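Notes from the 1:1 (GR / supervisor)

We went over the backlog. Supervisor wanted to see one worked example end to end before approving the batch request, so GR pasted a single chain during the call. The sequence is below; no edits were made to it. Supervisor asked that the structure be written out right there so they could see what the output format looks like.
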Amino acid sequence: MSAAYDRLATLDDIARYASRVSARTLVFDIEPFVADWDSSQETLDDGIARVLDHAATIAGLVVVCFATNSRRRPTALPSDLRVQVEYLASAGKPLQTAPYRLFPPPGIVIGDQILTDGLLARRLGYTFLHYCPDQAGMPRGPRLLNRLGSLARPVLWRGTPACRE
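Structure output shown during the call:
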């Protein structure tokens, strides 16, 4: 699988896409797909459980990694699943790639930011599934990064649709 680009809306979309391309690794950005910015610990833990429930339906999946550039961490990670579950806080996306290099390809990075999640996917040779949240609730920093990323998207992935702004 080469560094492709597609948009998504739901966990069901991800499961169908991952099954279709026989993905062995999924890397999820935390905010806002798994848990909204500045949400509670319970929201983060519930979001991780929700993602892992959907990931369990994907045949051949080996690793589910949650990665965030924030310091935020879950209470605990399940250890009794058929997939390896990793959590990377202060991940340094897209500059730090070493932790992901041990994961089996093909892989998919799911996130809202082209300049962090999308570039990480390209550096790893993974597909980038772009989650386009409503910008009305987006904090200023991510909103600015999103706008800058929209300028880079046509250069990185020609002919791809933009998120609505």
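Supervisor's comment: The two ends are 29 Å apart (CA to CA).
Batch request approved.
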